[in-house]
């Protein structure tokens, strides 16, 4: 009676590419900060700034995902209510 959507999952190749991309980006940034011709406190500040940026990006991605999943749950509840009303409706019943 109801079509339950299939939960989308990432492929192993996509997951691996995302992890590898993240690792390469972090390594390149760390090497760049380490090779920077500046005082240690400047390099330390840049390293902390990069870590803060990464944690903020992860938090933002989680918040967006949670909001999307919550919207899907509300949509499914509304759909179930509509299906119940349609199932109980008898068009030949006298008013």
From TrEMBL:
It comes from the Bacteria. Keywords: Membrane, Transmembrane, Transmembrane helix. It holds the Pfam family YiaAB. GO terms for cellular component: plasma membrane. The keyword Membrane applies. Residues 14-66 form the YiaAB two helix domain. Coiled coil: none annotated. The chain crosses the membrane at residues 12-34, 40-61. One of its GO terms (biological process) is DNA damage response. PANTHER family: INNER MEMBRANE PROTEIN YIAA (PTHR37290:SF1), INNER MEMBRANE PROTEIN YIAA-RELATED (PTHR37290). This is YiaAB two helix domain-containing protein. It comes from Streptomyces curacoi. The lineage of its organism: Bacteria, Bacillati, Actinomycetota, Actinomycetes, Kitasatosporales.
């Amino acid at each position: 009676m109801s079509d339950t959507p299939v939960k989308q999952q990432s492929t192993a190749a996509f997951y691996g590419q995302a992890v590898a991309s993240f690792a390469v980006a972090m390594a390149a940034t760390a090497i760049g900060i380490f090779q920077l011709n500046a005082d240690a406190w400047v390099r330390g500040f840049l390293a902390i700034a990069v870590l803060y940026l990464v944690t903020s990006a992860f938090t933002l991605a989680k918040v967006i995902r949670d909001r999307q999943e919550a919207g899907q749950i509300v949509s499914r509840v509304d759909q179930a209510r509509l299906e119940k009303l349609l199932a109980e409706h008898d068009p030949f019943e006298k008013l």
